[in-house]
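SUBJECT: A protein chain and its fold
Encoding: whole-number codes for local backbone shapes
Chain under study, with its fold:
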Amino acid sequence: MNSMYTYKVRLHPNNKQATKIRRTLNKCIECQNIVYDYLDSFVKSKTNIPSCGDVRKWFTIQKRIYDSIVIELRKGKTKKQIIDNHLDTLFYDVSNDALKQTVKDTYNSFVRYFKKLGQYPVRKSYKDKKKSFYVDPFKIDFTERKVRLEKITNSQKSNRQVLNYISLAEKNRIPQNIAYYNPRVSYDGEYFYITVGVSDEYAPKKKIKESDGRVIGIDLNNSIIVTSENVVYKQATKTKAYKKIKRRKKRLQRAYARKYLKCNPKNSKKYKPSKNLIKNKVEIKKLDKRLTNIRDDCHEKIINHILLTPPSVIVLEDLYIKDMNRKKKRKNMTYQEKEAAKNLHEASLRKFRVLLADRIKRYDIKLVIADKYYPSTKKCSCCGNIKTMEIQDRVYVCDYCNLIINRDLNSAINLANYRN
């Protein structure tokens, strides 16, 4: 298959469409859990799991059984009780293609585990922040500003055909009347998105400069990102806007804790949340999303600036964030050390590396990851002398050649010389 390009566009569904999308997401989670329990029973009994086709046939029979049970459980219950217990939707009401792909994805997660390519699968929860379901690429229809999905918008009335289409946030973003690959509708806890893959020939064309043969090293930090050419970029976590939103989130979390104790003084699993508690939770989710967007936008801008004049090789250090934070137990850490550990986690250094690796595929650039134990910080970039450094030491002073240089710049220059 040729290389692919992915489009991701936000959806603007009306209330009925949003309800149908949520019901489809919940049914896919239920389907995944049913198939998980079935396959997990084979693993626990130490017998070979059946083939994917047999699992799909088994689930087709289970669908009918579960639908008949749901119809029986609905009797004598109010509409609110039906919705709260997830009895408002049958498997019949959901796209069969979405359920078939969910079965296949669950089966593949077990196959990946047996091939030692991933961890053992886990059950899904309705409270998961990220949810998605598959859409048949032959039953999806895009226009300039709208999209039609199977079983989400299916009114047969001739005067309501316009309402069968869900609005897109961007006009003419996704090309029309072409082959689409692996379309998915996703929900991040606040907004709905549609993601489709297309052939690389339909990707937006951009003029790409040729690499100039340079080798640059990039030193990642929780506060700044420094290149070997002495270009310093400020991390998003150190900006005023980020800190302001973070303070607001902290206040809302404290208010949420107080309201939660009022609604649930006995700390029981079943309790009735107040409207203010639900409203407060939604506000916290929005701020979380906003903080993530600020970090991602900062990383994108840094990468764009680095690739204005593309080098031939980029060298990064192989960071293990968990190991860096485990040097001390949390109860033995000072306030400053706790804040430093939190900032290091929030800086999303791994995500920066993933974004950079994805972006340089369009260029003729090689990404080199330095060895985990390479002493980029302790080594002198001038003479190669190695000395121990504390975290609070921000200036590197060489005992052998008397070089005085910024600690992060010294590390970036050593990374640029890593191949030598």
Observations:
- Residues 97 and 136 are 6 Å apart (CA to CA).
